[in-house]
UniProtKB/TrEMBL annotation:
Keywords: Cell membrane, Membrane, Transmembrane, Transmembrane helix. This is Branched-chain amino acid ABC transporter permease. GO terms for cellular component: plasma membrane. GO terms for molecular function: branched-chain amino acid transmembrane transporter activity.
Amino acid sequence: MLAYLLNLATLICINAVLAITLNFIMGYAGIFSMAHAVFFGVGAYTAAYFALNVSASLFLAIPVAMVVAAALSLVLALPALRVRGEYFVAASLGLQVLGVTIFAEWKSFTGGLGGVIGIPPADLFGHAVSDPVAFLMLAAGCLVLVILITNALLRSSFGRNLKAIRDSESAAHAFGKNVAVIKTLSVVISSALAAVAGALYAFYLGFINVESFMLDTSVLLMAMVIIGGTGTLMGPVVGTVLLMLLPSLFSYMWFLPQTEIGAIQQIAYGTAMVLLMIFRPGGLVGSGKNGVVK
């Protein structure tokens, strides 16, 4: 039981990092991306390749993963400069499909459907982080660090510019804000921080394949943000905890058919999102009629 709880807590921390980084562009920049799982995957594959061929040091693998994800995020940022709203959602969906295809077919780098195996434990100050408790502390520390970085960015002039663009892109442009640059930077920062979760995920499991970075992962991350509270600092964390605990709770409900647990989970997610949009559009943590905290 202890091993199960440690595993669940570690995965909650990793997914919370992803939800927070998605909320950074969704809740504060008004950019709704369906391709966040791609940058999660880029971070994981880059860290795995680096660990297998160069070094498993966290101080090297994570920065490299962040740089690669940030560079590739420009592919997503460029359409963000030209389209908005539902058009950007469609563009990001196309990128998600493209990313999954590359993950599945670039066998020399990603291992294809078979994935990457034998990823060594993360190295921290010369010590392998293989103990589950130690890795949970590492993941929790990264989560806290991402929260602090996000909070600092949102309190800065950059964060205020993001909110201005979210509320009215035309008004922000009229006040002399460089909307294109600000939106590009927000996507780059979000993707780079998402790569941190990818690196942690690769080191934690020691094995990764394309199934962890599919469209349903992006949808689940968006559900975590919306249910927790879009445009709030802790909302994505609350949403992550709730949606990560639900499968565990369902598995302990003896009266439910175990072969249908997956379908029941999806129904529960969808129902929760519909009810929240009707009765609490700001999410569990958020407030305000439009679901965005100013």
